Every structure is written in C-alpha cells, then in structure tokens.
Amino acid sequence: MITLQSDQLLFRFPEVEEALRRFIEEHIQRTVPQMLAEDREKVITKLETQSPLRYVADSTRQQASDTIRKATAETIATALRFKCRGYPGMEPKPGRSTLKVEFQRTLRIPDDGRDYPLPAGLGRFPLQHVDDFPNKVPEAWLKHGGVMMPMHQSEALWLRFDGQYPCAVKVAAGKINAVTGEGWTAELRREPQNYLVMPLQRWLDGFAVSKGIIRQFVAMPLGGGYSVEEQLTGQADVGGIQIQVFPLKSEVYFHQHMAGKLPTKLEDLLEELVGPMPQMATRFCAEPRLPMTEIYSDMGLGAGGMMRQEVFKDRRDFADWDTSLPSRCFVHLCNSQVWRQITGSNPPHPPLTAREYSRQGIPWFDYYRDDLGAVSGSEVLAGVKSVLEMGKAKQTAPLPDNASVTPEVIVQYGNARRPDEVREWQGS
C-alpha cells in the first residue's frame, strides 16, 4: 500500500500490522492468567516502596494499592493492550510498519576526480500523482502510474528513508539497479546484494561504484545518452526512479524485536493500571537558470561527482525478508519548465552552485560506521562514464559551475573516524 503525504512516499504493509496484532493478542491471552496468579501484596509493597508513589499522599498511594488488589482479567488485558500500543499493529493509528521515502534537493558536487563528504539536504522536491494529470503527462507515465517531481537539468538529489520497521529497499535509475548496476528485476537477491537495508541505510545519494564511494545522482534529459540507463542498455525507455520495498517477515520481527520487550508481570503495568506516576524534577542542561535550447519532459539519472558513502551489508538471514509482499513505485522526473505547464504550479528555484553553498556556510556531513560492513560496489557502475565525461566526448558542457571547492565545515556522524583520517589538533 503506497500513499503520498507531504511530498513523501509512504510504503505501508497492513498485512504485517495485522499479523503482529495477532501475535500480541496471543501473548496477552497467555500472560493474563499468569498475572492473575501473582502475589499482589508483593506487587503493592514494591509499588509503595520503590516507585515514585512513595512521595505522594497516603490517600493517593492507598487508592493505587486498591486498584492493584481489585484488578480483574479484563482490566489487566486492557492495560496490556494499552502498554503495547506503541508496537506495529497496536498503536492508536495504523502505520508503524511504514517506510517513508522523500527526495531531497541538494548541492551538485563538483565532478573533479575528488571524493566529497555528503552535502546537506536543501528541502524536499514536490511530488504529484501522475493520475491527476491524465491529459498532460506522457502516456508511458500513465501506464506506470506513481508520482512525478520537477528537477532542473543537471540538478542533484538524494533519497532519505525514515522508518523503524526493517525493510529491504531496491532503488533503480530507470532500469538500472543503483547498487549493482544490473538490469531491473523484481527479484530480491543477496549475491550480489541488490538492495538497501532499513533502518540502517538512512539515505542514498548515488550509484555505488566502489566500496564506500558513490557517484551522485544527477538529472539529465533522456535521449541525450547521459543517463546511466542509456549507457548500459542503449535505450531511453523508462527514466526516472523505481523504488521497491520488501518488509521483514512479521513473525521474525515479533520474535526478534518485540517478544522480549512485552510485559509479563503486573509490575510492568503499574502506570497503565493506576495512572501516570509522579514525575521527579529534571533539568536539561543564487542561481542562474541553465540555458536550454530544447525542453524535455522525461529525465533520467546520470552519474555525477564522487562522494563518500557506504551501502551497508545485510546482516540478517536472507530468508527473513517477506518476498511475498513487494511494493513498487515509479517516480517520474519532469523537467522544471515542463512542470509548470503540466501542474500550473512553479517548480523550486534553481539549485545552488558549489561556491554559493560554501559562501553561505552550509555544512557538509561525513557518516562512517566501523561496526557495519559495506558492499564492494559495482564494477559495472564503476565503468559508467559520468555526465562530465559524456559531455567532453560530445564536446558539450553539460555541467556548468563545476569548479572544485574545499569543504570547510564538516559535521561528523557515525561511531568512528574513517581509517585514513588524522584527527587535527584543535588547541592553541
């Protein structure tokens, strides 16, 4: 089930939530008799001597104790369900198994042979249903369905993923898998790994060309030979982006992530039975438009500059993924000038250049984890020519403002420095 909300694609799996709801209900039915059989006076003693209730008036403490003594099977079951409300399938509003995907505008890094840190996100691209404009979009878009978004020629983007429920996510540029460089297939495959692992992989900025290095996603018009899809297939049939999501099997998630955290004793339900505990006081410490002699509606993704980014290896058993519940969406890339003609709304302003990015002091980011392995990258994608290299071969200049820059403000993320990084002395 895919929905569009606030310029985000939401991949939701109601089947997973329903299965988890059943697992939790089975746990409740097993646990209630155990709780009924507990020595309630021991629970009350702990309540009165070890919980924040020991700081309240005697009458309030007595009322809470009486509630524990009189708790019935129905009362305990209700408290259990309320305690479990934060789990997938049990929250007040469905959707905890949802994976959110958004498309972030960003700086197009220079294609100068250097590898750069991650540039910041500069806001979401707007998304629209292609079905809302049946008389204005290409017929192929209507056939594939999905959504569309506007991009300026040679503009860059990155994908941001948000969600706690584990998913395997395939990303393709047209017909080309962005991780392996292989042609599109609906199959989820481990060797070579042709997917990203959520929630480990919070973003993807480009094509995985080698271990720890990607080439940035850059929008170019289809038909000019610049897109990775055209280089590898010789055709400009699809363009845009494809995203396919597979959830973790519900039974695997329940046993690995939920079963050990569910309440098993009455003392686990004190707040649900007697009400919120008293809280102790705490203290918390610019942009020229690109010249275009022809306007294209369809766009694909070419390979831009190099960036430091790992695509993390899957550490789960491959059989844990539910390949019976795939969810797939097309994201069509529309030239910004055509976007106005189709939708009647203005596209985002042209992107920043690297010099403008630096002049405004926008930070860069470096995310590194030494506890997570990374895939080795694709030899196929490593052999693809970048947009700049294609332009040189065509004797054109497809990447204006490609001058090198030196990132000055770099924010470190992850749990370690990169192996080749020397920590600089910051003292006087």
Task: Please give a quick description of this structure.
With 428 residues, the chain is an alpha+beta fold.
What are the defining features of this structure?
alpha+beta; 17-stranded mixed β-sheet; 3-stranded mixed β-sheet; 12 helices
Overview of the structural elements:
This protein is an alpha+beta fold and 428 residues long. The chain has 12 helices and 20 strands. The protein has helices at 14-36, 40-50, 58-70, 73-83, 139-144, 228-233, 250-258, 270-274, 336-343, 354-359, 379-382, 387-394, and strands spanning 2-5, 8-11, 99-106, 115-116, 118-119, 121-124, 128-129, 147-151, 156-162, 167-173, 176-177, 196-198, 203-204, 206-210, 213-221, 241-247, 298-308, 327-335, 364-368, 410-414. The strands form 2 sheets. The chain has a 17-stranded mixed sheet that branches. Strands 5-19-20 form a 3-stranded mixed sheet, with no helix packed on it. β10 and β11 form a beta hairpin. α1 (14-36) packs across α4 (73-83) and α1 (14-36) packs across α7. The longest helix has 23 residues, at 14-36. It is elongated, with a radius of gyration of 26 Å. The termini are far apart. Mean pLDDT is 86; it is low at 277-296.
- Low-pLDDT parts are 277-296
Helix/strand structural class: alpha+beta
Q: Quaternary state, please? A: single chain
Number of helices: 12
Biggest β-sheet description: 17 strands, mixed
Mean pLDDT: 86
State Rg. 26 Å
Shape: elongated
Beta fraction of the residues? 15-25%
The helix content, as a percent range, equals 25-40%
The tally of strands reads 20
C-alpha end-to-end distance: 57 Å
